[in-house]
Amino acid sequence: MGPAVQSSSNRLVLLAALSALAACATEPAPLPPDTTGVNRQQNLSPDAFNSADRALGCADLAAERQANEQKMATDRQAIDSNRTYNEKVGYAAAVVGAPLWLAADSNTPERNEVRTLTLRNDVLRELATLKGCPG
Amino acid sequence: MRPGAIPARPLRLSVVALSLAVLLAGCGTWSTQSSRLAPGVQPVAAKKAPAEIALSENDITDRPYRSLGDIKVTVHKTTIFDHDPTRAEVDDGLRARAVELGADAIVLVRYGTVGIGALSWGQMDGTGRAIVFQ
Q: Do A39 and B40 touch (CB under 8 A)?
């Protein structure tokens, strides 16, 4: 095998390995600092929020949180619907060879959006607590 | 060996592999836990049964509580033949850890997505904050 062919083959295997990693389990977004427990390490302060967020009312905060929850549910559904397919690709790749991993669908945009929206909802929840919003 | 006869060694290997697969398939899932305790918090004797531990994806703001720490659970499926870990199994793991800490509830529960992990074909993470009401 010539060096050019070997280099190309190595790149393919590397790409397949990266695809396999993309089909990995994703961790949940990190928990926010404790700002509500009696032994909390930090207090909520209006200064921690930007002016646009501070201007939101309780109804706005609740509506945005609900919309985010719906988007996350849709994203999770998209990720879960590809799980069986990715699993089959994984089994086949284990038998046939690593390049088959390229066929896996990583759902990276959906996974990133779930994380972003979870963190955004943390901000909205803290702001709602600071404003004394119901629920 | 007669022509067409099955060689004994590969057959024995197949039987061993099949037995192992059946044995492991019975395990279903297994889980690992970790926690980051709040400063000054020491685990206490369990006060509640796991089923009595309340779980919430939100915070609790209408009742004072003390945070015991952030707990994390990873549920793995044992073999490729087992079902994928579910949120209910992650909840069970979180509740089990919360009981060890003497918690009343877990707030801010959130889940990862199922996928391949370092140790299994399918794993799911879950995390939350163990609390005790004042």
A: yes
